[in-house]
Fold each of these.
Amino acid sequence: MRIRVKICGITRLEDAMAAVDHGADALGFVFWSQSERYISPEDAGQIVRYLPPFVQAVGVFVNPDKPWVKMASAAAGLDMLQFHGDETPDFCGQFSLPYIKAVRVRRGLDLLQYAQHYEGSKGLLLDTYTKGKPGGTGHTFDWKLIPSELSLPWILSGGLNSENIVDAIQQTHPLAIDVSSGVEIDSGIKDVNKISAFMEGVRSCEDV
């Protein structure tokens, strides 16, 4: 099965085009002002308008209010929402777009119950728990904490790069992958060679 890939933290058109050229299925735009990868909805919209058909634009939010989500979604031309904070299922599901719920994986967290709680989502994005940081830490988590019988599709995230992606896929068998810092030369600035090497690693696993 083909593994879907989302490259997150896009802030520049050239990075978006490099991601698309190397086969990314989705691009993530961070609309949380405290992030080093923040981009305004208007600037994101200027990038999204150049995306080809079937490449999704995903807006990443952290504990936003409803007006911000609605405004950013419209201005950027989003296809999907991704919530990284403490948003409730009712909050996430009130918009006219499908959503993904991120969860910061740590020992003691019941992922089976979490999946049931967010059963209205398109899936869970499994990220690394770091106190005080909602994501983008550049660190992996213990992949053995992923249960084999999750009721929702899930996306592997957290500290992935070209050096560990093959091992990550072989150990976890994800439906999809999310990468940000692992293909950067600086926060929000992607590197085409890192994108190429990362995507090559993903595709090599599909051929096995």
Note: Helices lie at 13-21, 41-48, 66-76, 89-92, 111-117, 165-172, 192-206.
Amino acid sequence: MRPPAFWNDKAGRSSGAVTRALLSPLGWAYAAAGAARIAGTTPFKADVPVVCVGNLTLGGTGKTPVSAALLTMLRDMGASPFALSRGWGGRLKGPVRVDHETHGADDVGDEPLLLARTAPAIISSDRPAGAQLAVRQGASIIVMDDGHQNPTLHKDFSFVVVDGEAGWGPGTIFPAGPLREPVRAGLARAGAVIVMMPDGDALPDLARLQLDELEKPVFRAWLAPSAPVPEGRLLAFAGIGRPQKFFDGLKAAGGDLADAIQFPDHHRFSTGDLKRLADLAESWNAQLITTEKDHVRLPAGMREQVLSYPVQAVFADAARIRDCLAQIMARTGTS
């Protein structure tokens, strides 16, 4: 789905405020159901520490690149990290270890395919079963991509990732807004917060993000290209949580964008989609380019026609993050 306009309307337009007010009772019911599930579930405790990288909103905040960065840090620290994902959008329920030779996005989802480039990745709709498989296959620590609101698996530590620009939106709960749960409830279960904000931009007002009184670490990170922007004219397209961030990033890195086309998050690209995009690119005398996450969802025969633009999460203070990870492993006896 594309986020409705009123999710980003911070009461500046009366129509958005009215829509949110009308939908707010549904949001309260959604939040109450989630809170009851968390309170009424006894989580499974894995034999290794579980670090969750989650968020409080629907849509893209950069969780998967952050998860990949943490996996890399843990590997460099001598651990044997495994990624764990629900495998959203894939047909397999798991638990199963992602294999690039046999699995595609239709099987396991796009995000697990990306994480499996960094560390072994398990997909499982049943998170405890996925954690058990990871342990059997040699995991010394698990990084769970998403799942902050899933109470079935015990989390030894949770990072909540928030987009510094979008924040919590208008502060209303789905469907009245993008929040999955009330901010204070979600932050209370977090061990630390990661604010995603481009390098050089001033950090947002922490009071606006309700982090000013949070007695927990607040880290800053951003997405940076891990390869140069291709030369020549580009026609960019993306089906991620916030496509405009991808387009803006390309421009900021010096990309010559002829046009930018948005698709819904996790969009399954058809040959028809690619034909229309190719025709449009030809009319602009431009090369097609998309995100890594979108690229793995393209039909196999189409991938060579489209450039992939890789990005990585970069931390303003990587040493503090490594110290945090070391403390987690020390507390759980895995250091």
Note: The chain has two domains: 50-224+313-331, 227-309.
Amino acid sequence: MSNVEQDPQELVCEAGEPARELVSGHQVALGGPRAMTVTRTLPAVGRRMVGAWCFVDRYGPETAAMSVPPHPHTGLQTVTWLLSGEVLHRDSVGSLQQVRPGQLNLMTAGRGISHSEESPEMELHGVQLWVALPEQARHVAPGLEHHADLPVARGPSYEARVVMGSFGGVSSPATTYTPLVGAEVVVDGVAELPLEPGFEHAVLTLDGSPVVDGDALPVGPLLYLGQGRSSLPVSGRGRLLLIGGAPFEEQIVMWWNFVGRSHEEIEAFRKEWTEGALFGTVTGFDGDPLRAPALPTARLKPRGRVR
């Protein structure tokens, strides 16, 4: 999935360490003015990353068509997770993959890839996330993993499908490059979710009206929980997305659909998308690729999680 804004701002990945913070997010049109609107909770003004997770869009449930033209990515992994609907993924390494609810589509951009996403008009509900790749992995070969059958961790009053990393002693088969967790958790009753104390965590309600850490967490905002927790009390009935990971300490630049390390690198990525062949060609999409927006007049600065 793409950041389709035509006047994108520099996405500065930095954050402090409050123990609890509600991030409201903002609305972004996805796939053109006639398509759906997503709620983007990462990156935000005060909260830029949760572990290596650096981008969170939630959309639906909404009846809409999705058509995101071919566009480039570098230095990240994209995670597509659906609750309803179907999305057709095409990419420049030759993948053609239909994504359905409960299935993980994990695209590793590495040194460079392009892809498109399409869906006919139907009810769509899901999340799109990005994971920043660390220095030693950000130039890996691009590729796609599709995991249709993910493992489940169970405890009193909860069931968690482990999308990325490990949760509750259960590990996903998906490839990761930093210690992290991503899980869809269904709660019905009073539950205590196990957490890794060395990770920072955040929770997003996907549906229902659960109580998280003592307060109702409505659909929409992201609840950041900081580090140092070994468990998280949740009650009521609902479906949650839990993300977390070891704090990402490298300085990075996020702009448009690129994750890099300097203004010059982002500038080179943009030029390559406009004029070169690094990102390959997506075949089968009926339409033109996305045009790269103009770079901002100010220099893009690499930044850490703490200002």
Note: DSSP finds one helix and 21 strands in the chain.
Amino acid sequence: MVKPTDPMLFDETGELGVQITRLAAIMACLRDPETGCPWDIEQDFASIAPYTIEEAHEVADAIERQAWGELEGELGDLALQVVYHAQMAEEAGHFDLVGVLKTISAKMIARHPHVFGAESRVKSAAQQTEDWEKIKSAERAAKAEAGVLDGVALGLPALTRALKLQKRAARVGFDWPSTREVVEKITEEAHELVEARDALGPEELAEEYGDMLFVMVNLGRHLGLDAEACLRAANGKFTRRFGFIEAELAKAGKRPDQSDLDEMDGLWNAAKRAGL
């Protein structure tokens, strides 16, 4: 057992293997029942999972903003999450970090026979994607995942999971042939949403709203667009334009709550004209 005073914990000069070992040892020290950090000791898989998701999103955010100076740190935060879960798993007797690394290495080699095996590398990206899906299907079969939708993680962001579910269903022919049918379905769902708003309760309204979102994801898929990425971009655009509104109001000595919709809408249009 490494002690908190062990010099290896403070070695910033070592190469990859040394640094992986160092991080794992730091986590083991933090989780030590006698000398560790009280907060870290109290955590479990369920309590840490939200942080794991948050760190993954922060990596994506740094990439979206092309904040390369921040990305190194964000990737480190995400790596810590892997080590954290592996440490808890080792304590529970499930597996350890070595097993995690060996498993993913073996998976990558098995899924890339055109790189690590005898298969030809002369393939299109589309053919490689098809082969990848065949390998993944075989893996799901080995796990006794018989259903088409089995194995699509429940913890994914809802838009991402909707896209994955739709792709799985489309592989077996459960899909509209063109965007025309999808747009028609959106119109139908919009009418049902309005009817629910006017005549039904909150549960039915939420259900109809969910149906609308699900079909919107499907339209994006048919158009070759990722709903999650498109919504992130829309969020960014909204943030930029609203920031413009705040800045312009501040020039007049005002805050948004001291303005009105007409004035702010005019500033919003000015932001659009400015290319924000």
Note: The mean pLDDT is 89.
